[in-house]
Amino acid sequence: MQSPDQPNQQRSAEGNSIALKRSMTKRHLIMLSLGGAIGTGLFLSSGEVIAQAGPIGAVISYIIGGLIAYMVMLCLGELAVNLPVSGSFGAFAAENIGPGTGYMVSWMYWLGWSATLGTEFTAAALLMQEWFPTTSIWLWTLVFIVAVLISNLTSTRFFAESEFWLSFVKVATVLVFILLGLAAIFGLIPFQGHETAPLFHNLTAHGWFPNGLFPIFATMLIVNFAFNGTEMIGIAAGEAENPEKNVPKALNAAIWRLMIFFVGTIIVISALLPFENAGLSGNHAQGLSSSPFVTVFNFIGIPYAEDIMRFVIITALLSTANSGLYGASRMMWALSAKKQLPKIFSKLTKSGTPVIAILVTMIGGLPGLLSEQFGADLIFKNLMGVAAFTMIPVWMSICLSQYNFRKKWLREGHTLAELKFKTPWFPLVPILGFVTCTVTGISMAFQPDLLSSFIGCLIFMAFCYVSYYWLYHKKID
Hints:
Blueprint: E1 10-11, E2 17-18, H1 26-37, H2 40-43, H3 45-53, H4 55-82, H5 88-96, H6 99-131, H7 137-154, H8 156-185, H9 214-218, H10 220-227, H11 232-236, H12 243-272, H13 284-289, H14 292-300, H15 305-337, H16 355-361, H17 371-374, H18 376-411, H19 428-443, H20 451-473
Helix pairs in contact: 1-8, 1-12, 1-15, 3-4, 4-10, 4-12, 4-18, 4-19, 5-6, 5-18, 6-7, 6-15, 6-18, 6-20, 7-8, 7-15, 8-12, 8-14, 8-15, 10-18, 15-16, 18-19, 18-20
């Protein structure tokens, strides 16, 4: 608990006074969570889920994905409110599972968001190249790297404000899309190829599950990747004003907004487009502007729909990179604060930002500079596979940490009434959350395109445990 005379400081998991400032409000927390989640998973991958699982299957997939995310966030709420520190997942796992697991979780989270930087910059650069075909991908990647660095290095408050407005663009676009889509579905506005209201017959035009039930589970990794970022509130809790009040409210507000946005979007796309045409086609560069959002807006008759959506998707990509750099750098700062990295990584600027951790984390964005030499599609797929899988053990650790925390809390003689926020339906929520995350992670092994990323991540996890037990005997000063 911070002292009254130090309102802008927080304490690390070990109790040391640290100068990270509490300058994020509830609106910042909500938009940070939405900004981390609304990106390629919604604007680009949603159509692919529909094409594979069918309309009803896609709706079920996103509902299941949202429920998994909600269970994990309920567990996170109890942990984050009682220990609101940056680097939260690693601290929770170290305290409630084991120090080696806490170390592994911290590095997996860092790796996931660091890899995400590469996917977001590469995709955004490809989109800019469609506007300016004579320019190089690496040039736009460099421009975006500098822009995101400036946002993160200036101050936490500046970062929070920039992320708020970047996320606002995405949220507004999704709301407009859903409202216009519903108007077209019910015949209130014209839709290309339909003289009467399309209504919802497309949802079951080819049967309830045209490709069977298996694609519903096969697409869960894509769906879970779409919900990645909601856990960012746990990281930001260490820099939030009044975390006991704002963190639970932000978690609930963010997850239900995402459920409405994601499921509403899937229903609109599925009702207006034949499911087999909803996915991206062609190479990745072409596919980015072939988002189902573009197709629907074009059919409604929105002028310059492709350019508008290209701008929105670029904004979405940069917003995700912006919040990803924030989350990953705070995890690196937390490792340094616990003396598991050299102390230079916890070095702060006068405005309270961990400058070295931010700069080193940006290494994940550098593969985008190599896109023209090695192929943007190859780099994008491999980085996305890493980013998708690394969040699975993090979410599993949140569920297991909450389960163990509650057991220990009661074993030590505390009561549930003493908890400032408690996960409901215990122990069902943490157990179901852990099991469903585990199944999602294992499913990656059965997808040939993602197998190399899956094996690479497992090796990285093993390396984390080995390196931790080496550090246990030889602490870094």
